[in-house]
Amino acid sequence: MKMLLFAGWDGFRSASGVHYTGTRYTTGLIVTKNEFRHLLYEVWLKSRGDFSGLGVVVCDVAADLPIVNLRGITPDTTGALVDVLARISREKNIYHDGFHILSTGGKLTHAAQYFSPPIVRDAFFDKSRIVGGRFVAALYGSAITGVAMTGIVSSGHGLSIFKNGQEVHYEVCQ
Predict the structure, then answer these.
(1) How far apart are CA 6 and CA 60, in angstroms?
(2) Contact by Cβ (8 Å): 89, 52
C-alpha cells in the first residue's frame, strides 16, 4: 500500500511496514492534515521507548515566527524526516525541548526552538482535558499568518493538530 506523506518530503518506511513517499505536484506542494497526522504518529511510534513529546510548526518563513533557538548547534538531520524527528524527540537527546520548524516542502529548517506565540483571546480548548504549555503554544501559534498548521504529540500519547487557532484533530496514540 502506497500513501502520500507530505508531498515533496523524503520517503520512509513506517513501523507498520508501509512505505510512504513524497510526490511533487506541478501546482506546488500539497500538505494535508491527514498527511501531517501520519508523520506525527509515525514519529511517536518510532520513539516510544523514551519519547519526550513533540511540537512541530509547519511554515515556510520561519523569520516571521516568535522563536528563539534553545541550542547553539544544529542536530544531525541525516536520514528520512520521520527518523530525524524520532531521534530528536527522545528524552536523552539535547534537541527534545521546544518546537521544530518544518517547511511545507518537508525540510526541517529549525530544531529545538522556544516558540512564544501571542495569546489568542478567543481561542477555545476544552479545559477539562489536561493540557500543557506545548498544547497552548501550538494552538495559538497556528493562528500566526504564514503558519500552515502546528501539531503536537504529548508524552501522555495525545496527538493534536491545529489550524487557524483551532484544534482540528485529536486522538490518543495507541
Answers:
(1) 14
(2) yes
Bridge partners of 59?
A: 147
In this predicted structure, what is the pLDDT of residue 122? 93
Question: For position 79, what pLDDT does the model report?
Answer: 87
**Exposure string (b/e) for 42-81, b if CB count within 10 Å is 16 or more?**
bbbbbbeeebbbbbbbbbbeeeebebeebeeeebeeeebb
How many residues belong to the chain?
174
Mean pLDDT of 27-35: 64
All structural domains of the chain: 2-172 (3.40.1700.10)
What gap in Å lies between CA 168 and CA 112, rounded to an integer?
24
Give the count of alpha carbons within 13 A of 48, CB side only: 9
From CA 172, how far away is CA 129, in angstroms rounded? 12
Closest CA to 9 of 84, 90, 111: 84
Residue 52 has a pLDDT of 87
Please check whether residue 69 is in contact with residue 110, taking contact to mean a CB–CB distance below 8 angstroms.
yes
What pLDDT, on the 0 to 100 scale, is given for residue 165? 97
